[in-house]
Structures are given as C-alpha cells and as structure tokens.
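Assess the record.
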Amino acid sequence: MSFWNAITQQPPVILTGEMSGWPALAKWTPEYLKHAVGSKTVEFQGDRSKSDRFEIHKDAHRREMPFDQFIDLVSRPDAGNDAYLTAYNSARNTEAISVLHPDLGFPEKFLDPDVEQPTA
C-alpha cells in the first residue's frame, strides 16, 4: 500500500489546543494583516456565487488585487463566501504573505520540521 493510500484510509484527527501559543491568534486582525502585507498583489478565488460549479471552473474564478484591498473585501459584513485565498493560489502568494510566517508556530509534537516531504 502506498503512503498516500494509507493516509486516505485513516480517519481524520482533530488536534485541540495545539495552536494556542501561536502569535497569529493574538496578532491577526484585519488591520494588522493590512499593515504587515500591505499592497502586495495576491491571487484569490472570487465571484464564486456566479457559478454552481466554481471548483470545476476554478481558473475562471482567479482574481488578483492588492492584499490590503482583499482584506477590506473579505472583512465586509456582507462578504459571504465569495472571495478567499486557497491552496490553489498559494504558489502565486508565497512571497507576498511570507512576512506572516513568523506569526505561525509548528506542531513539533507531531511533525519533524526537518522533513520536507513524506516518504512512501
């Protein structure tokens, strides 16, 4: 059995309290994020409400805008689920949001920070 097949056959795990010490939990407000990242351009999935099959047509939903404007967009009370950053957009956003990495922790009890990719 391959590594990935073995992983997909296991039940999900819920870890509670493991991020409680991460600085992001205290720091990440819309204003902090806008100040930290600024107007660097990010790619996101947008206008999802215009398609029932937004996941299948994900390329048609790619949008770009300055990060500070994106935060304003998603912070509106009526924002809903129409715009968000996804793993699909992550390669385009790595540099822009890298300034936020120091605010993240690492689950060292469960993962080895020196391992880049799992092996089969």
Remarks:
- The chain has a mean pLDDT of 85.
- The chain is about 30% helix and 10% strand.
- The two ends are 9 Å apart (CA to CA).
- The longest helix spans residues 67-75.
